[in-house]
Specification:
288 residues, mainly alpha, 11 helices
């Protein structure tokens, strides 16, 4: 049951990321993040009276930290998905997000089994591979091809993955008795943060109905994913739950392939496969 909750959260995370990245291509990053976070906040606020839970100050503090890291991570992710290839950006973010808890476990004295160590190495290799682009045709003006440059969005995706990794860690520190209150604290912080940034930058919240619908859908689905992840993290081993929840690139890549017709070169296809394989190795190694 725990693993099914984690996998379900991955499906919802991937769908939310696709919708959020797609709408960010049509509107500004801050307005999209603000409205999506606000829609999830409204959903949770409506349902909260029907949910049990008694949070303590530490629970709410971890929720606030999750709101800061998660909000930043989502904003970076949406921006990366908007300017880059979704099938490349999403796995890059996921590998970083799943590696953070593993390194924290090492610092706390947990010993890595060979499969987990192999998964981390494979994850690093996947980042290198998805960064490979087909060599551009040489220009008559500048015959020297550009090398060593990351594809659009990949650098931002790395930062997003780190932030999301800490979001996973922070939210998992809350007690089961706190119910969904930590997520409420998290969403209040992220909504206030990006609402303020949108106001300071004087960015318009106006967008077409179809775009607004996708934004609200992204926020609602993301909130459902957070709830499923939190419940799974409270019932099962954190490292396994986090890695299963980090399989979200599968649905993002599938939706991008179906809706946008995105294609990858051979290097990047191999990198995407390595990223997903890295996550599965870490999960398998943690079970052994």
């Amino acid at each position: 049951m725990v693993y099914l909750l984690a996998i379900a959260s991955a499906v919802f995370y991937g769908a939310a990321d696709f919708a959020g990245g797609l709408t960010t291509r049509r509107a500004g990053t801050f307005p999209v993040v603000f409205l999506s976070q606000a829609s999830g906040l409204v959903l949770l606020a409506v349902l909260l009276p029907f949910l049990s839970g008694t949070p303590t100050r530490p629970d709410l503090a971890w929720g606030v930290l999750a709101g800061l890291t998660g909000g930043i991570g989502v904003a970076l992710l949406y921006r990366a998905l908007a300017i880059g290839v979704m099938a490349v950006v999403a796995p890059t973010t996921a590998v970083c997000a799943v590696t953070i808890p593993v390194f924290v476990s090492i610092l706390l004295g947990e010993r890595l089994v060979p499969l987990v160590a192999a998964g981390i190495l494979l994850g690093v290799l996947s980042i290198v591979l998805v960064s490979r682009q087909d060599a551009p045709k040489q220009s008559l003006i500048d015959p020297t091809p550009s090398r060593g440059r990351l594809p659009p969005g990949v650098g931002i995706a790395l930062g997003s993955g780190i932030a999301i990794g800490f979001f996973f860690l922070a939210l998992a520190q809350t007690r089961a008795e706190a119910g969904m209150w930590p997520i409420l604290a998290s969403r209040l912080v992220s909504t206030a943060l990006f609402g303020s940034l949108t106001l300071v930058r004087r960015e318009s919240l106006r967008m077409s109905r179809s775009t607004l619908g996708l934004v609200l859908l992204a926020g609602t689905v993301d909130m459902l994913a957070n709830a499923l992840y939190l419940e799974a993290a409270r019932q099962g081993p954190l490292s396994i739950v986090v890695t299963l929840s980090s399989l979200y690139p599968a649905s993002t890549v599938l939706l991008a392939r179906i809706a946008l017709g995105e294609r990858l070169n051979l290097w990047q296809m191999t990198g995407v496969g390595c990223a997903l394989s890295a996550i599965l190795l870490i999960v398998s190694g943690d079970r052994s």
